[in-house]
Amino acid sequence: MEHPISDGFTLALGGGGARGWAHVGVARALAAHDLAPRRIVGTSMGAIVGAALAAGRTPDEIEAGALRAPMHRLITRRGRFALFDPRPMLDHLARALGDPRIEDLPVPLGVTTYDLVAGAPRLITRGRLLDALERSIAVPFFFPPRHDRNGVWCDAGPWEGIPVTLAREWQADDPIIGVLADIPKPAFLASRPGALLLRAVSSRLGVRDPQERLTARRYLALLTARWADPVVDNPPDLLISPRLGRMNALQFGRVAHAIAIGERDARLALATINHPSTRIPALAG
Question: What DSSP letter does each residue of 216-284 carry, written as one string?
Fold first, then answer.
């Protein structure tokens, strides 16, 4: 059995830092083809762009907002266990989006995060949007982990580049258009020798009581242990991978550049399936 994309799909957006601005261009190309996602799942930068889209912002509005308030000017303060404090950026997003609850957004949204203590991902579909985003954007050493009594939360991107697995668990019937803007996690980190080395380092640093107070040493131990986990490679039904070249994750000023590439490569990908008549495979099972 197959589904036409025009019948509804889930848009799964990965991370990538500044490279994630390409997601806005992908959304613009989809809109030009009269394609609107039935739901959105986002990781890290993909969660930020996905939240804006789910809140009803158009790609043009998102780009204009990014140019008015450059993100690199919002993340200048030092953070705990990280280079930067995300709070000024989160406060800006709260003002821009109205600080909504996820379940109140016009388009259903899932925000991914990863619990370093349990070693498991989680999809957040309810609650305060900004709390979910803080958990999702906690890129190791860049933004600090979010620590609470339930776990130590950080970016799920290193374990699955595009949040396809969680998207399918949330809604198994929809085809998935996935966007990979980030540089994939090096496979050697999940190779047998690499995993043994990382687990040895983690054991040396010491991870004992899950309720132990979070320290830099414990955070590094947890992070090292989870980097040894296998790479998840669950392909979407349609993959869009913007060719961003050597653009790095910290070049937040290159908004228009990344968006233009995202739009260009999304249009090329959509042209290969001859929308709207072409049907893409439904999920097995």
Answer: HHHHHHHHHHHHTSPPB----SEEE----TT--TT-TT-HHHHHHHHHHHHHHHHHTTTTTT-EEEPPP
Question: Which of 6, 7, 34, 44 is flagged as catalytic?
Answer: 44
Q: Catalytic one among 115, 155, 174, 265?
A: 155
In angstroms, rounded to a whole number, what is the distance separating the alpha carbons of residues 141 and 246? 21
Note the Cα 58 to chain centre separation in Å: 19
For residues 27 and 200, what is the distance between their CA atoms, to the nearest angstrom? 43
Return d(Cα 271, Cα 11) in angstroms, integer: 17
For residue 21, give every residue at least 6 positions away whose Cβ sits within 8 Å of its Cβ, in sequence order, or none.
45, 49, 66, 181, 252, 254, 255, 258, 259, 262
Query: In this predicted model, what pLDDT tens digit does every residue of 145-163 receive, in sequence order?
Result: 888 888 889 999 988 999 9
Of the candidates 200, 250, 244, the one whose C-alpha atom is nearest the C-alpha of residue 225 is 200
Is residue 191 part of the annotated active site? The answer reads no
> In the annotation, is 202 catalytic?
no
| Per-residue pLDDT reduced to its tens digit, 64-79 | 999 988 777 777 777 6
